[in-house]
Design brief:
38% of the residues lie in helices and 13% in strands. It contains 15 helices and 14 strands. The protein has helices spanning 18-21, 44-48, 71-85, 96-99, 110-125, 141-147, 154-170, 190-194, 204-229, 251-273, 278-286, 297-303, 354-368, 394-412, 461-471, and strands at residues 11-15, 89-93, 129-135, 176-180, 234-241, 244-246, 308-313, 317-319, 344-345, 351-352, 372-376, 417-420, 443-445, 457-459. Helix 3 packs parallel to helix 5 (110-125), helix 9 crosses helix 12 and helix 13 (354-368) runs parallel beside helix 14. This is 6-phospho-beta-glucosidase.
Length: 477
Amino acid sequence: MNNLGFKENFLWGGALAANQCEGAYLEGGKGLNNIDLCPSGKNRFNVMLGNLESFKPLEGEMYPSHEAIDFYHKFRGDIALFAEMGFKCLRISIAWARIFPNGYDEKPNEEGLKYYDEMFDEMLKHNIEPVVTICHFDIPVALIEKYGSWRSRELVKFYEKYTRTIFERYKNKVKYWMTFNEINMLLHLPFVGAGLVFKEGENKKQIMYQAAHHQLVASALATKAAHEIMPNAMVGCMLAAGVTYPYSCNPEDVQKAIDKDRENYFFIDIQSKGEYPGYAKRFFRENGIEIKSEEGDYKLLKENTVDFIGFSYYSSRCITTDPEILKTMTEGNVFETVKNPYLKASEWGWQIDPKGLRITSNTLYERYQKPLFIVENGLGAVDKIEEDGSIRDDYRINYLREHIKEMKEAVLDGVELLGYTPWGCIDLVSASTGEMKKRYGFIYVDKDNEGKGTLDRKKKKSFNWYKEVIASNGEKL
């Protein structure tokens, strides 16, 4: 890396998730996954929080993931558009339920394996490096129904079998892997992050942190398997990141901000450093949480740490202990945050803070001393088609431009950055709200919140802008 900017082999690209783009939710032998049970509308958050138990889609509800943008059938044309932009990589996820429809099947589903073979071949044909998330909010429903999902130790062996299956199959096609998407989301949206459904009166903290232990052990086993099967592969963890600012210089606010960050760093501390941190042990003691482990768990965690830190960054967070200021919590963001008076917000209440990306990058790099990969960043906004057919999304260009400038500053600070894959490089279903109108892409997809539309693809103004960014390796913004 020179001292002037991004290295020559910097991985510019975009990011997608199977459950938000593929559709074809029961085609090709695929089983139901947890996101297939998350409706749009008023019940969505209750389901995502694990408060509504339902193991099949309900009548009268709309499920955006069932068709999504039909990437399952349209991936060749979409990948050609990504290649036209000059993508060096594409972050995509594998749907666990396409490979093992029930999760506990004896043999994998060959049709599912073949589908990803064809997708990776198409990417490699265009010199696009696959960056693959093994589990992106994607848990076979049969595992939730039969075992209670990640609250059960049984999930560890099923996940390991799944990972070894895909590593053997795609070992010559995929170099970059991430074990769990936004693993800390388990604490914020338990059904989305870990397929957890709670019964009344249960100790939610105990269940969530036990599930976290199982995921962390599973992640270490996947890292071990990857390094055995693919010695040249790089395996990463993935954090929903964004540094927490204290609202004031009151030491109570500063400590509260540290505690909030630790809540999320907990997972990555273990995946990157290989052991439970002291602050977590104290938290468990003070909250009556007892982690049930098996012999060899802690040795496994210590010996199989990740090679890089993947993270999403959309906004920073802000916290206080002042009860009056706490009344100004923002809406629309999964993470608890008060309104930062120095920042503007998106239409969905997400505070826009490019400088926060530099701060977050430096914080993570100094904490872990491992390469970073910014695998999500973007602006959800309503896009309008003009009378001449154009889509002038200058607001998206401005958002991304300012963030890329701060990425460059982080590189100049000495942060080792592998690549940058803005979220939703083609419009897809919003993970938080289930909407189509909350668009992120450089490519417009003709579909609305009611599921109507032709699914035709159309380039936005940002398409050609990002093409120039990649061609100039971030110099032309």
